[in-house]
Each structure stands twice: as C-alpha cells, then as structure tokens.
Amino acid sequence: MKTPLMTVLLAAALLCCAGSARAADRELGAGSGVTLTKAAWTYRIYRLGERRPCKILQQADCPATFVEISNNSNAELACAGQVYLLLGEKKTGYVENFGTLVAPRGRETPFEFEIDEAIDPARSFVICNTTAERDEADTGDPSFAKVPPEPCKFKLAATPTLDDFYATAARTADEQGLVRVRVVFTAKNGMPVPLGVTQSSGFFRIDRSALLAASRMTFTTNCPGTFKELPIRFQLTN
Fold this sequence. Notes:
The protein is of the alpha+beta class.
C-alpha cells in the first residue's frame, strides 16, 4: 500500500523522466574511408529527433540536418562532401557541398540544414585526404604515387552525371568553369582518389564539385599506383 508521500514522489519522478525524454536522432546516411597513407575517418548524416529554434529561417522552430565527420587518425584531414536533397513533391534535386579541416582525433560538423526534406544517401557522401597527402601531391612527386611511365593507358569506363555534383548555389550565382583535378589510380579498375585541384575554376564551389565528381568516376588502367590530372568542366545550359 502506497502512502500519500510515496505517491507524490513517484509522480514527481515520472514527470521528471517524461520531461527529459528526447526523441532519437534519425540516421540518413553514413560511410567511412581510409586515405592513401592509411588515415581512417567516418561520417554520418543525421536529423535531430526534435525540432529546435531556427537559426536562419524566419519561423519559430525548424528541423536540423547535420553531416558529422570523425577523424580516427593522428593526421589532420582535409575533407569535402555533398548532401543531395530532394525538394518538394517532385523531388527536385538540390546539391549542397562543403569543405572542412578535421584535427587529429577530432570531429567536425561542417553542414547544417533547416529544411525537412528527403536526402538521397547514394548521392550524399564525404571524401578525405590528409593535409600532408594534399600538400605532397602539389609538388607533383608524391611518395605514395609515381609519374605514369610510357606507354600508360587510362580509359574512362563510367562517368556520373555532372549535374549530380553541380552545387545549386553555384548555378544560382552563374558560376561555371574548367577544373583540373589530380587523382591517384590505386587499382587497375575502379574509382580514383582525388588529391587536389591543380587548376581552379575561380569558384570554390565549382572546384569542390569537380573533386567530388572525380571521386565517382570509374577507370581502367594498366598503370595502377600512378597519378593523372582530370579536366572536368561545369557549364550552365539554357
């Protein structure tokens, strides 16, 4: 038999727990990778379980979608990524890309969105290199790759639709141009590893779009372990 005091304490405890309960975050995508020099990283795309006060939109509360990158190595990472949103009933594609540095054993959240829209996980992803790999590749003679000998053949086996990587904000701002991306071919067949931009378009969103597109191209080569520059052009159409 409960005493009145026990009843009051039990009710207070239930009220406390109910008030502190929080809806679970919703996972929208995840992935991982290892750089050429074996630095490991992971990422996840998630939406908060509860709405929160808006930071950008002029309304009381908003959903919040994030990309979180975790560096599991002792090297600094340079990462780029994109989120492919599907807007409205027609599921119109909206591409948002981003870049960030992640400290050794650190974690960064470079992307935040306040629109409660679906995400295409197949076209939402992150790529990373160590900053040392990126800087060494800029010298043109990185220790982890060699200059292609002659004869050396590269064949583009499959290329994604560039529109899937063309940042929507760049389109809106009439940004376009040619980018040259240095990549390493790690196998005879497969996707190359982009290391950096050797010729910029003059627009950082276009340069990131090219890096991300290069990482999803498929090649065959008789020279695995070598590097090459890929020309990628983003051009507006009427």
